Each structure stands twice: as C-alpha cells, then as structure tokens.
Amino acid sequence: MKSYGAQDMFSDLKKVLINPPLQTMGSVDYKKWHYDGPLNQNKINENFSSFLKILKNFGTEIMSLDQKEIFFDSVFPHDASLVIDDGAIILSMG
Length: 94
What we know:
Layout: E1 15-18, H1 41-57, E2 61-64, E3 81-84, E4 87-90
Parallel strand pairs: 1-2
Antiparallel strand pairs: 3-4
C-alpha cells in the first residue's frame, strides 16, 4: 500500500496536508476570486482554528504548507481531485 492518496471518502484520515489561510484574506478583491462578498478575517481564523482542533482530536497527523504564493482559494479543504493507488481522478467542482 502506498503512503499517500485516498481510496475512499469515509476511512479514517491518518495524515493530511493543509494550507493555512493567508492573513490578508479579509482584504481580498472578492469579485476577482468569485466570492459572494467581503471575507471576515477573524471568522476565517476562528474557523481554521476549530478545524485544526477537530483534526487533532481525531489523532490526524497534520502537515502544513509553507505558503509563499498568494492564492486566496487554496485554503479550501476539498480539492477537485482524488489521488488513489492507480493514479488521480480529476473532478469538476462546477
């Protein structure tokens, strides 16, 4: 068995790579990034902190990216692809 990937969406999450939210998300041009309205930085930080606590409570090993790029949408926890033993399945969120 490989040490990466997800064969399903219901087994225990043992290890996860996350991308913490940028501390400037509250000032992003929400129209450019196709958000419904301005973002609340305090709420973003609170939600992320709560999310980390949930992961830790389940015993999940958490690895964080050292984000240098300014991609305001890379914080979302579900990407439009799944990596499995046989390769990757590219999904369409739209």
